[in-house]
Write a structure and sequence with these properties.
CATH class: Alpha Beta
Largest sheet: 5 strands, parallel
Number of helices: 8
Number of domains: 1
Strand order of the largest sheet: 2-3-1-4-5
CATH superfamily: P-loop containing nucleotide triphosphate hydrolases
Bound molecules: shikimate-3-phosphate
Distance between the termini: 8 Å
Strand content: 5-15%
CATH architecture: 3-Layer(aba) Sandwich
Length: about 180
């Protein structure tokens, strides 16, 4: 299982599907699963239910996917804000009370958590240029730059591998991840 984390515009979905293609694994984008389950776009869930409700649903969806078959999973940029999501990532995808949680070895294959690093400037350029800034409720936040700064440490804290993406094509980032995880997969 490979999990991609990082700020909006890091390229998690694009790189994730390229990576999945190269590895012959299914690709899942947590935002898409949330939208299917809620029957509404992320923007509407934020507007109608608020961010805490979105994060709770996001956590539930991610924990379920991590407990399932191997795949490449791209997480929404704020998924790591939820302590339960950080905890399940730290347990290698195991549910609470599982062998690893009790200090025993887990039968599950190790989780590779790849942090796609993007600078704030490039993130804004990329999401501003993707045609639908309306679909990303976070862009309306006045404290977006501070949020970005704060999250840097959170992404780095959960990651098992950090890959720079500024000025690089998704194909190059994908090859980098493959080269650096070859011995682990
Ligand atoms: C969010 C990022 C979005 C989406 C939601 C909240 C965030 O995902 O989950 O709009 O808090 O950073 P992407 O990172 O795929 O844009």
């Amino acid at each position: 299982m490979i999990v991609l984390v990082g700020f909006m515009g890091a390229g998690k979905s694009t790189v994730g599907s390229l990576l999945a293609g190269r590895l012959g694994l299914p690709f899942t984008d947590s935002d898409q699963v949330i939208e299917q389950r809620a029957g509404r776009p992320v923007r509407q869930i934020f507007a109608e239910d608020g961010e805490p409700a979105f994060r709770a649903l996001e956590h539930q969806v991610i924990a379920e996917i991590l407990d399932g078959p191997a795949r490449v999973l791209a997480l929404g940029g704020g998924a790591v804000e939820h302590p339960g999501t950080r905890a399940v990532l730290a347990r290698g995808g195991d549910p609470p009370g599982s062998p690893r949680d009790r200090g025993d070895p887990s039968p599950r294959a190790p989780l590779e958590i790849v942090y796609l690093h993007v600078s704030y400037e490039q993130a804004l350029q990329r999401v501003g240029g993707d045609g639908d800034p309306e679909s990303r409720p976070l862009l309306a936040r006045p404290d977006l730059a501070a949020l970005y700064q704060r999250r840097l440490g959170v992404y780095a804290g959960v990651a098992t591998l950090t890959v720079p993406t500024d000025g690089r094509r998704p194909e190059a980032v994908t090859e980098d991840i493959l080269a650096r995880t070859a011995t682990l997969l």
